[in-house]
Write a structure and sequence with these properties.
With about 160 residues, the chain is an all-alpha fold. α1 crosses α2. The protein is rod-shaped, with a radius of gyration of 56 Å.
Length: about 160
Amino acid sequence: MPDENISADPLPSVDNPASDSDIKAKIDSVKDAVTNLKDAAVTKAEDLKAVATAKADELKSAGTAKYNELKNVGTAKFQDAKAAATAKYHDAKAAFDAKKAELTEQGKAQYAQAKTKAQTVHADSEIYVKENPTQAILIALGIGFLIGLLLRASKK
């Protein structure tokens, strides 16, 4: 980009000697052109720096916004998963407690039946022994004899 301060006149030649003032004027003109170019370059560099800084700030803001968005989404997903897990835990605990109560009731009922049956067998045994004492003693002796034989055989 040619500067308007530089003239299109050719440099003086040996055949056309220029005066010292013409040369000084041309040098000053070149110095002014260099200074103008330098100032323009500095201005352009400052403008470019300002644009780059603005773009960096814009990207930083966009990155921060995206980070916050993703963080919020992640937090929401975590909270959803936590709520679902808590609900499943409570459902499982309720099912366990219900089954525990059901089995406890069944166990109590079976215990009561066994207790009643044992009391009935005990009462019937007492009646049988009272009505048939000799037969009861002989049965008891026979059972004792068999148990003795079995214990003796198991020791060998």
